[in-house]
Amino acid sequence: MLASTAMQLNLQCFLLTIFLFPLHSKAGRPAEPVYDTEGHELNPGEYYIIPFNCSRGGGLFLSQRNTSLPIFVRQDISQLSNGNSVTVIPVTNSLPAAEQSVRLSSNVRIQFVSCATCLESMAWTIGDPEGTDSRRHVVAGYSKRGYGQSNSQFRIEKNGHGGYRLVFCPKVCKLCRSACENVGVFIEGGKRWLGLGGLPLAIEFKKT
């Protein structure tokens, strides 16, 4: 009788282990990687951010709206243009840079690789509200303005119609939930500027 009871308990424990293990394994699994146009995992190397599937416009580059900082991120109107290259760097990754990979829904920093005329940091950030509609643009060159790191963190998400989209999820406080906004394109003065809100810009990453 005791032997039979022990066998039943062992069987129950075995079945419980089989049932729980996949759940535990899945919960500890890292987020899905982001892939470039060639199907390779995105890492902190150099890439062009281009419209998905040859949609309207070309790559991204820096452009001044006036003679002062910041410098604004703008989309080229030519589909033949790749724009300026960027690096995408994971924010919370303890691995060496060469071993890091960029993953969905994770905070990243994006910055242009080179700019011969630039004296400031080329990391992307979100600027102050501007204009009658309080539009907030994606800008660079704010390193001496004291902007916090939270204003320079973006996330990459899958776009519903293919490709990826960039979102900005500011943290107001440690216990507050982030209110994410899409990074879209707005036409002002016949030019295509990146800013928060509106329809997301569907993008993909092309290795330089």
From TrEMBL:
Signal peptide residues on this chain, from the entry's feature table: 1-27
Signal recorded as keyword: yes
Parts of the chain that traverse the membrane: none
Keyword Signal: yes
The entry's keywords: Signal
Organism, as annotated: Rhynchospora pubera
Name of the featured protein: Alpha amylase inhibitor
Classification via InterPro entries: Kunitz_inhibitor_STI-like_sf (IPR011065), Prot_inh_Kunz-lg (IPR002160)
Gene3D superfamilies: 2.80.10.50
Gene Ontology molecular functions: endopeptidase inhibitor activity
